[in-house]
Amino acid sequence: MIGKSAVNWTRSLYRPLRRAGQRALRKPAARTSRIARQPERYPALDHARFVLIALVVIGHLLEQLSDSGPFAAALYRWIYLFHMPAFVLVSGAVSKTDLTRRRVFALATCVLLPYVVFQTLYPAWDAWLSGSGDWSQGYLTPYWLLWYLLSLACWRVLLPLFARLKFALPLAVIIALAAGMAPWIGYPFSLSRTLVFFPLFLLGHRIGPRRLQQLGGAPVRRFAAVTVLAAAAAGAWFLRDIDPEWLYASMDYASLRIAPFAGAMTRLALLSASAICALSVLTLVPRRARHAGFGRRSLTAYLVHGFLVLGVAATGAFALLAQALPAWAALVLCVTAGAVIAAALSTRWADRIFALLTRPVRWIVAFGQMLARGHSAGLAPNRPSAAGRLPAHDLPANREHGASPIRPRMEQNKRLY
Predict the structure, then answer these.
(1) Is the pTM of this model over 0.70?
(2) Please, which pLDDT band fits residue 390 given cuts at 50, 70 and 90?
(3) Which of 231, 269, 230 lies closest to 247 in space, CA to CA?
(4) Residue 189 gets which letter from DSSP?
(5) Contact indicator for 299, 358 with CB cutoff of 8 Å
(6) What are phi and psi of 38, to 5 degrees?
(7) What are the Cα distances from residue 349, in Å, to 8, 86, 370?
(8) Are 245 and 187 in contact (CB under 8 A)?
(9) In b/e form, how buried is each residue of 297-323, taking b as 16+ CB within 10 angstroms?
């Protein structure tokens, strides 16, 4: 009687728990685990990041040879037409509208703090190479390629405000066109690039990462993307003498020596062409997850490759290269070297080596945890060796008091369930 009553009581207790578990499987939990909170990865965006960071490095190398011939000038302008706009579009696609404490902390530690670190290192590196440095800009005017970090922080702060507006994208385009009419909007705070490229960031957010992942499914879209990029290359060839400052989006119309209305129309045409070419590149990238890890470490390649470019330029290697090799050979060498540098700086070992600079807070926390584990392991008592362990028949559970009652109870519960 006692055994049957215990069994019935156990089953009556188990059935509500089983129903609750089934309901929990059907309905998502309010609080997800740490693994479930991890953002979903989209291989197409990771591949696009690596392709674009390779184009960034190639473009910075070609910048030293852009005056060496028409092919270098055309390729340089073709790359700068879409490579940073595509980066901006991808960044907008993976950004969220709500700024939680966790995201604000990540923005401060993963974007703004590396900006401060590299804004200190790059002028110091330039001063060491040239023998005299210019420290007048301070931290308000980004050094060379660091404008993207400051603009990215501003875009993520502006996104929750514009996401509530009904006509946010047209308003952002109007602001981008009007930014060139103010002479005080330029390099300081990266304000000009922030306002000009913000429509692309907002467009990427409106499209979303899932649609970008599915963008290259049909062969017709790929053919259209190839056609668009080929047309852009032809346009870059015919417009190879255009001032590249138009593609940098960092100067006002008066500095570009053009009337405000004509400058606004030119900027609108360039923004439209940049958006179409950026979507074309995202259409052609692979969709599989294989080798997508290189794109996940694109921040390290973006922040570190500038030291190599400045170091090579300081040695006069580009001038020697332009004199020793034909124009096409120097062009091929720069493209190959840029792809190799981007691939090398996107590996795991490079990411771990420069983690102290690119992710200082995360590196310090990981290093402190490693030290804590080592300290606790040193304080832990030594385990007895195999020779010093007691045999199974000499264990306290089997020595005098008979077998432990726990295991039969576990076997009984297994039979019940």
Answers:
(1) yes
(2) very low
(3) 269
(4) G
(5) yes
(6) -65, 135
(7) 60, 27, 18
(8) no
(9) bbbbbbbbbbebbbebbeeeebeebbe
